[in-house]
User: Fold this.
Amino acid sequence: MLCLTTPARCLPIRGNHFGDAVRAKGGTSRIVASGMWGRDEAETLARLGAWNQLIHCIRGRIEDIRNLETKLLRRMRWHGLAKAGVQIRHTAIACDMKRSLKVIVIPMAGQQQKHP
Assistant:
């Protein structure tokens, strides 16, 4: 018996931009799957769990950062919403810049630069 739980309408529509960027850096593009094809249901669910486990580890770290921002926002309610909003935006910008630096700058540091 075939087991399929992912309808076609749930597949990503973003295009290949993000996947191509990951492959250009030598990585593997992964998207959380809600189902897989398979003849044996237990084997299929085991493969699905193994596939999603790596993704959940990475997403968990990102969600920890976002949860910290939410906690800071709750603490800042005594200082006023305007100050709290600015702090949250600055934290988000800092996290995004740090992640961008890891993706762009660090791999370039390993390459030798030629000076004219």
About this structure: The two ends are 65 Å apart (CA to CA). Residues 8-109 form one domain. The CA atoms of residues 4 and 37 lie 5 Å apart. The chain is about 60% helix and 0% strand.
